[in-house]
TrEMBL record:
Signal peptide: none annotated. SUPFAM superfamilies: FMN-binding split barrel. It comes from Alteraurantiacibacter aquimixticola. This is Flavin reductase. One of its GO terms (molecular function) is FMN binding. It comes from the Bacteria.
Length: 172
């Protein structure tokens, strides 16, 4: 392989194809602004720090959640479990009139929380930084809850997969 720089289209295509093969947990990021619930699916979420406990979330600036989240400055990162696949599929449907009509949603610290999700993290927005098409949001933890019996919903190569059934790897 040559060390020459790929042209922009080839580079973007190579990046998309490579990222399709990185397994990622599926999250529903939610907020409430002026009485209305907003939410998107995301895979670009990461723990940032344990002190203070915080998360990093990347949100496309064209997403319906983006401006309400920045205005409200409070959000919830809901980790979807295998049992929440129907929620993920409903969130992905652009024709769905209300993303929150599917799933067991409840108010938790003023934001929508998926009651039967694997985990939920409510955060106050403490920093936002624009980069490319996205805003990198840093949230400091306000509250969290976790279900012991849930396996995360994982996205890989444009499909949801069950990582609890992944074959064991030879340790030798």
């Amino acid at each position: 392989m040559s060390d020459s720089v790929q042209d922009r289209d080839a580079l973007l295509d190579a990046f998309r194809n490579a990222m399709r093969h990185v397994a990622a947990t599926v999250y529903a990021v939610t907020t409430r602004h002026e009485g209305k619930a907003y939410g998107i699916l995301a895979t670009a979420v990461s723990s940032l720090s344990f002190d203070p406990p915080s998360l990093l979330v990347c949100i496309n600036r064209s997403a319906s959640l983006h401006d309400p989240l920045l205005a409200e400055r409070k959000f919830c990162v809901n980790v979807l479990g295998l049992g929440n696949r129907h929620v993920a599929q409903h969130f992905m449907n652009p024709a769905a009139p209300d993303r929150f009509s599917v799933g067991e949603w409840q108010d938790f610290h003023g934001v929508p929380m998926l009651a039967d999700g694997q985990s939920s993290f409510v955060c106050d927005l403490v920093h936002a930084h624009e980069f490319g098409t996205h805003t990198i949001v840093i949230g400091e933890l306000v509250a969290a809850q976790h279900r012991q019996d849930a396996t995360p919903l994982t996205y890989f190569d444009r499909n949801y997969i069950d990582i609890s059934e992944a074959p064991e790897r030879d340790q030798s």
